Amino acid sequence: MLSEKDFINTVEQHQQILFKVCNMYMDTKADREDLFQEILLNAWKGSKNFKGDSKFSTWLYSVALNTAISFFKKEKKIQLTLDSASSTHLHDPSDVQQEQLEAMNKAIAELSAIDKAIVMLYLEDYSYRHVAEIMGITANNVAVKMNRIKTILKESSKKHLHQ
Fold it and tell me: What does DSSP assign to residue 154?
């Protein structure tokens, strides 16, 4: 079990995880701050159960994602913001890369909360095994979900590109 001081120091070392999760699930600063506090509270409550069987960052990702998904559902938030791209308009229509990025962000925003979590971990270069450990599912299930998600994202981003 971590002492309060050890918990605070360890969370500070891994706070980027919390920021990424909060940014993935909440679109306003106030909502991100509320979610951040909720994650910290749940992590502190659950820290007595952290045995060190996995890396602290893996455990913290799991707590953060589970909290975010619950918070997301409870608040009935259906919008994802990745660098505010989904809510901004293109300023230079000739910038194809920007247009493609925006289309992909809109497509990700349409995914379920769990699929967003898997995509976020995938984009962080986590292995399927590591994603499975964080999400509490099998690596095979992650692989199947990622194949389905990739297909959905391809189709959805094409749709958004042509809007």
Answer: H
Centroid of chain to Cα 77? 14
Q: Where are the domains of the chain?
A: 1-77, 83-163
The CATH class that applies to domain 1-77 reads mainly alpha
Strand, helix or coil for residue 26: coil
Handedness of CA 12, 59, 137, 139 (dihedral sign): positive
pLDDT in tens, the chain (163 residues): 678 888 899 999 999 989 988 888 887 898 889 999 999 999 999 888 887 778 888 889 888 888 888 776 665 434 443 344 444 444 444 455 667 777 787 888 888 888 998 988 888 888 899 999 988 899 999 999 999 999 998 888 778 777 6
CATH number given to 83-163: 1.10.10
- Whether the Cβ atoms of residue 160 and residue 136 lie closer than 8 Å to each other: no
> What is the C-alpha to C-alpha distance for residues 56 and 33, in angstroms, rounded to an integer?
22
pTM value? Answer: 0.59
d(CA 18, CA 21): 5
Q: How far apart are CA 143 and CA 149, in angstroms?
A: 10
